[in-house]
């Protein structure tokens, strides 16, 4: 029996994509598609993006993100689904430049979603040169209609 004190027993996590970017270069302002995930048995999720950015003074890192749903794990019938995270600034470089770490999140109701979902994430560094970013996303599913299997 799953205990309410063991939140992990009520959730399932899946890869949502990852990337690195250099300002005005590779990976910057480029949408990354995560892998397709079977959401069967879950009615909600949180897209969690963790990041570490090296930013020049007053330069920023922002993210835009959304989910797509599809009827098959090959993306059949893929379409944007649910609320999206508009291009939002999450960190600004301090005086002299700084390393910034943080989290961006998006909550999504999956009740009307097709069986398969994937994250789409677009990082955007405002600088024209040297700023760098490393990020990774996870889809954390909850609201299980049947609790996830737990090892004995």
What would you say about this model in short?
This protein is mainly beta and 152 residues long.
The parts where pLDDT drops under 50 for at least 5 residues are none
Could you spell the SSE succession in H and E letters?
EEEEEEEEE
Helix count, DSSP H or I runs of 4 or more residues: 0
> How many beta-strand runs?
9
Strand content: over 45%
Shape: globular
Radius of gyration: 17 Å
Any overview of this molecule?
This protein is mainly beta. The protein has no helices and nine strands. It has strands at 12-22, 32-33, 37-38, 42-55, 60-70, 79-92, 98-109, 116-125, 132-144. The strands form two sheets. Strands 2, 3, 5, 6 and 8 form a five-stranded antiparallel β-sheet that branches. The protein has a four-stranded antiparallel β-sheet with strand order 1-9-4-7, with no helix packed on it. It is globular. It starts with 11 loop residues before the first strand and ends in an 8-residue tail after the last strand. The mean pLDDT is 93.
Attribute tags:
152 residues; 4-stranded antiparallel sheet; globular; single chain; mainly beta; 59% strand; 5-stranded antiparallel sheet
List the helices and strands and how they pair.
Blueprint: E1 12-22, E2 32-33, E3 37-38, E4 42-55, E5 60-70, E6 79-92, E7 98-109, E8 116-125, E9 132-144
Antiparallel strand pairs: 1-9, 2-8, 3-8, 4-7, 4-9, 5-6, 5-8
């Amino acid at each position: 029996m799953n205990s309410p004190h063991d939140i992990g027993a009520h959730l399932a996590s899946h890869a949502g994509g990852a990337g690195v970017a250099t300002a005005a270069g590779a990976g910057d302002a480029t949408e990354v598609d995560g892998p397709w995930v079977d959401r069967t048995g879950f009615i909600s999720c949180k897209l969690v993006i963790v990041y570490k950015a090296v930013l020049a003074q007053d330069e920023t890192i922002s993210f835009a993100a959304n989910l797509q749903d599809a009827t098959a794990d090959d993306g059949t019938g893929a379409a944007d689904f649910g609320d999206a995270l508009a291009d939002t600034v999450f960190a600004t470089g301090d005086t002299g430049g700084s390393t910034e770490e943080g989290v961006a999140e998006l909550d999504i109701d999956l009740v009307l979603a097709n069986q398969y979902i994937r994250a789409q994430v677009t990082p955007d560094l405002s600088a024209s040169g040297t700023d760098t970013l490393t990020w990774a996303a996870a889809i954390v599913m909850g609201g299980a209609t049947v609790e996830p299997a737990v090892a004995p």
